[in-house]
Amino acid sequence: xxxxxxxxxxxxxxxxxxxxxxxxxxxxxxxxxxxxxxxxxxxxxxxxxxxxxxxxxxxxxxxxxxxxxxxxxxxxxxxxxxxxxxxxxxxxxxxxxxxxxxxxxxxxxxxxxxxxxxxxxxxxxxxxxxxxxxxxxxxxxxxxxxxxxxxxxxxxxxxxxxxxxxxxxxxxxxxxxxxxxxxxxxxxxxxxxxxxxxxxxxxxxxxxxxxxxxxxxxxxxxxxxxxxxxxxxxxxxxxxxxxxxxxxxxxxxxxxxxxxxxxxxxxxxxxxxxxxxxxxxxxxxxxxxxxxxxxxxxxxxxxxxxxxxxxxxxxxxxxxxxxxxx
Amino acid sequence: xxxxxxxxxxxxxxxxxxxxxxxxxxxxxxxxxxxxxxxxxxxxxxxxxxxxxxxxxxxxxxxxxxxxxxxxxxxxxxxxxxxxxxxxxxxxxxxxxxxxxxxxxxxxxxxxxxxxxxxxxxxxxxxxxxxxxxxxxxxxxxxxxxxxxxxxxxxxxxxxxxxxxxxxxxxxxxxxxxxxxxxxxxxxxxxxxxxxxxxxxxxxxxxxxxxxxxxxxxxxxxxxxxxxxxxxxxxxxxxxxxxxxxxxxxxxxxxxxxxxxxxxxxxxxxxxxxxxxxxxxxxxxxxxxxxxxxxxxxxxxxxxxxxxxxxxxxxxxxxxxxxxxx
Amino acid sequence: xxxxxxxxxxxxxxxxxxxxxxxxxxxxxxxxxxxxxxxxxxxxxxxxxxxxxxxxxxxxxxxxxxxxxxxxxxxxxxxxxxxxxxxxxxxxxxxxxxxxxxxxxxxxxxxxxxxxxxxxxxxxxxxxxxxxxxxxxxxxxxxxxxxxxxxxxxxxxxxxxxxxxxxxxxxxxxxxxxxxxxxxxxxxxxxxxxxxxxxxxxxxxxxxxxxxxxxxxxxxxxxxxxxxxxxxxxxxxxxxxxxxxxxxxxxxxxxxxxxxxxxxxxxxxxxxxxxxxxxxxxxxxxxxxxxxxxxxxxxxxxxxxxxxxxxxxxxxxxxxxxxxxx
Amino acid sequence: xxxxxxxxxxxxxxxxxxxxxxxxxxxxxxxxxxxxxxxxxxxxxxxxxxxxxxxxxxxxxxxxxxxxxxxxxxxxxxxxxxxxxxxxxxxxxxxxxxxxxxxxxxxxxxxxxxxxxxxxxxxxxxxxxxxxxxxxxxxxxxxxxxxxxxxxxxxxxxxxxxxxxxxxxxxxxxxxxxxxxxxxxxxxxxxxxxxxxxxxxxxxxxxxxxxxxxxxxxxxxxxxxxxxxxxxxxxxxxxxxxxxxxxxxxxxxxxxxxxxxxxxxxxxxxxxxxxxxxxxxxxxxxxxxxxxxxxxxxxxxxxxxxxxxxxxxxxxxxxxxxxxxx
Lengths: 326, 326, 326, 326
Description:
The first copy, chain A, is α+β, with helices and mostly antiparallel strands and 326 residues long. Chain A has helices at 3-12, 32-40, 55-68, 82-92, 121-126, 129-132, 137-153, 246-250, 262-281, 298-316; strands spanning 21-24, 44-47, 72-74, 99-107, 157-165, 176-183, 188-194, 205-210, 213-218, 224-229, 234-238, 322-323. Chain A has two domains: 3-77 and 267-296, NAD(P)-binding Rossmann-like Domain (Rossmann fold, 3-Layer(aba) Sandwich); 79-258 and 302-323, Dihydrodipicolinate Reductase, domain 2, CATH 3.30.360.10.
């Protein structure tokens, strides 16, 4: 059954019997068409990132979401980790003071060789501009880094200067990117991502420094977060402890040091999205702080595509400062 | 509905409609009665540890399991981690040489104060000899350590010398235990567990040293295992990489550095147990190396209770060497 | 020149020209004779550990030190690390509350093979009962662990139950030891040391838990100490920061994160000992809290030998509880 | 006594009685004048970094060193660590394959507040353009990062794009810098340094990735280096083990896991420089691989100043790519 057939068939079912939302987990070029059709037929959408093939599609999607007033979620799953939520809340609560610097990285090594030549499925489409879009590593993992930085810091990237590279001969898209960041309000930063950093796993990580404190989090040990202070010893926050805030607690299933992982973080995006749908079905109004509203939305989708476009453009212009399109 | 009613009701249903197995997750004194009734009514059983209230019950259970030829599983969930399976396979494959020393620890801090006085539910029954059994920390977490040590090393504890303590005034059971171990075949070891080690989470961990190499694993970072060699640099094994063996791979759901946690480890016990049941239903004979057979069984259940009994007895005799009952 | 000739020659020189003290860095059986002769000729002594060949010699040495009123220091160098001093001060200041549990380890792997058969100099004398004494690993590294535990906890080991082993065929002394500890005042503990733990470097480490908090320190990363609390996040203390106490500060030479190591720790013992000598020469009275008094002394020397004797005796008696001789 | 008086006085002494070299440890603006006078009077020079106040002085110094044929050393002390030498040797030996990416960082937090306003001596001159030069953090710590990257990778930075910032109000020089790097031969990189990264100590660190492998080293744990491979588990190299090469061994004083630190690394620069002087005095010709030649020299001095100049210029031009002057 094609997605078209599925959507048509479901759309004919009465409310209560038909599906609640469409989850899109296809390669990038196949994100927008099913999202569009789902929305047009009255279904909420939860989509893989990056949201669309290019920025133009993302803006069309945004219009459609606004018009249909349906829910749209984007699985930037790393924001589902309890300690990432804790970091965001600490920044928002002013615990670190005014933010000055953000360093965000997403190093991988799995494309250090010409893996796509072997026909490996994941490598095949991710390095193919027809299915992946204008960027390789920047679209696949750089957007996760961009989203994580904005989620935790609460700041918007204003402009960037990017130097992206294709290291592996024969590859059609970038497999490494180094980016200088300037945030609105004066904070500075660096973002780098790589698929040729031999020996690195999916180790997305971030450091945020404010006037009063700093935080550091790494996905390869996601239940630990370092919290740094001006004059006091560094603290080690661990998932599921009583000293964490309510959002971290709400995103946690197990007692302290019963490590939670990637699947639970991913599930947290789904849970919140599902709870939001449920509230809509039950016509309940959610408080602004309700965890059900805590998942990446169409705004993040557009920003991700604007980020990709800006990086590619900046890099083509020899790392000239480039603003993210609105 | 009581468990009795449930079992009676289900037993009346025809095969294919009735439940496949009973999962027991009650306090210790309520492990044996439902297990017994389930087995007597033809149901497989998957039970929390320790298996029973005392060794006598465990032996009765063992007889019943043998007689009914039904499946019995015990959720020593830490053996569900991929790298724990890798460790076991490396020892079994002779990679570390003959095993000489095992150090296994399970430190916690959550009972450092008289928490049960507050009526906290978990603290309440776990410190109550009527519901928990003859031991506190030794039964609750020491048995996990005992099981992990035997699982990875492939060795049986022959005898032990134990010094257990109740540090918190008013508590009725031990909240700390230090145990010297002697394994069959000559290996030596230490086991210690604690509920009063302030600041420690559920950090069960183990080190095993053989003539050629050693391994080290900690639950608070379960996707990492250190592997140590005589003359070569230490290696860091990480979940989900291609260099791991087939059992570790079979127990893994996600790509490298997408951390898996406690829930997945726990689920691995359930998965294997369920696959064993399925094989029985389909009258398929499983190879000895089939992952479906890799879960703690009635033998582990009896050993756990023999361990508790030996520790309590040894400690009463001022840490006299005490053999584990057969 | 022999040590006898040196001491005789120096003793004839006038004060101010002759040496200030004798440093003894020979194998164990050659600790007492030069120490004795030096003291009898009016020289202070700074000696390697263990202090003597056996407890009897240690007691004779103690008498001599008391009689001559000369200074005697013992290079338990691990107590020279700034964070070890910080740990001791935090315990003494009541920050951790009443101490309940001490876990101290000294694992090494360098004698996992029959290295002494190759004539390697260090292995040769350390495994030779005629030069090393009644114990191998227990004397060489177990005494460091014993000293570190008493230094930081401020508690005396009352009795112990030991199980020591010689794993390598042909070796004459123990190369591994597991020991249960009972401290005066009710604290419990474990001490284990090993020379056959493949892949372990000189990683002496300690954990101390009180009613309110705990500390953890490892020599392989000596500028970091973990501090654990009942309800608050774990803290990471680092050498040379302003939040440390005066004794840690006095033992530090460089700014934060300019790591200090083994040589500086060792030097700290020498510095304090030298400052004590200087005060004596200048007839200055030192306050009890003066860092110049902070080095292991004859009392530690006797305790170390009593520890060795008790471990060997306990192990011969199948780990029977054995008191440390006074 | 002024340095002028000292040099004049020493210059009058006969060879063998006069000093062998001058060590310069003053603020930056006072590096060149004494270096110049020392060289002109026949003395070798070992100087703090950055070598001079500006690039012009560095080039004058270079001429003088060439003309006098005297030795000039620069204390980029981090290159004195054994594992840094091991990393350089592994890269030079082709173990990592062709280098693709270098990430080098030097984060500090000690100037997160307006410390110089308090008159603190170190903060005072380091933030003063008259004594520190054209750059703050870039000159003080960025040059260390630049030197470490070139030392280990064996590659020269060709051009850079820099965005430097003064975050603390009232400060006269940059306290943070983010820099994109392009190396000769096609490798890419990032360098960032900061004095406002709250809670960071002197944690200079580097990651280098080649086609076959990668290395990672952090000064806050300098005796550990991670070595990463395409298909094999990550390895942990530790100072003083037998598997390390001869240069790492020559720079080590103690057995494995007797941690060495900053002072020993610093001393290694002095030792090599002193051995080079000795060889000259003894008219011995040194092999190209002799450790005595392994210390930063006038070429590094000029590159450091060219780096500072390029960063400041690039940043003034809004991060325009800027070549390092020859």
